[in-house]
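S2.1 Query sequence (Zinc finger protein)
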Amino acid sequence: AVAALVNHDSSSSVEIKPLQPPKARPHGCEECGKTFLMKHHLSTHMRGHTGERPHICPECGKTFALKHCLSTHLLLHSSERPYKCLECNKSFTLKHHLVSHERVHTRDRPFECPECRRRFPQKRHLTTHIKFHSGERPYSCSVCGETFSREEHLVMHSRFHGGTQPFVCPDCGAAFLRKFELVNHERQHGRIPESCPACGKEFLQRRTLLVHVRNCGLNSSTPVHRSPYTATASKACRYIY
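Output structure tokens follow.
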């Protein structure tokens, strides 16, 4: 029912509607009991239990449970870097990368290890560090049982069991486990990759090369050249990229 409050100082009255009961959340997760208003929200949530990651980056093969996470990740392969540090003018693709970088100047290290009191500027660094204390290797291969401390290591390992081949030739559709295999294959179609002048690593797409060149400590205006050699990279460069 609707209650009416009469203002005796005027001829007007104000109607106050009762609070609506919360909407039912009929879709429940059988694993953890969490409930959802819409069925597709439950389907997305279930990927956290099943480990399903259907959205694959065409550049590096990294997989994601949510499409918007892939969209954000793809910005890392773009040459656009709109967020600039006011201290050193270094620019970044994502805003939170700029926020993390600014801690280099402020020396802010807000994340502390409860075991050894070592502090870190980023939470993910602390999370990785803690695993060295616990010996935790939570990511397990469903085929051979080998365990890993980091999820990306498991993703790369899983490809060797004949699973995902994310690097696909746009000319003939041939698929490859690793990107350098695709680079070598593309030469059969007359595609000659451009190489990084610092380490020799090769790229089929120039925009990806320009991003990599900055990671090697060079300016994006540094001239690059086409290389006739097999795609190789120095150990230091592999860690950077």
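Confidence is low (pLDDT under 50) at residues 1-7, 224-241. Residues 88-160 form a domain with the Double Stranded RNA Binding Domain fold (CATH 3.30.160.60).
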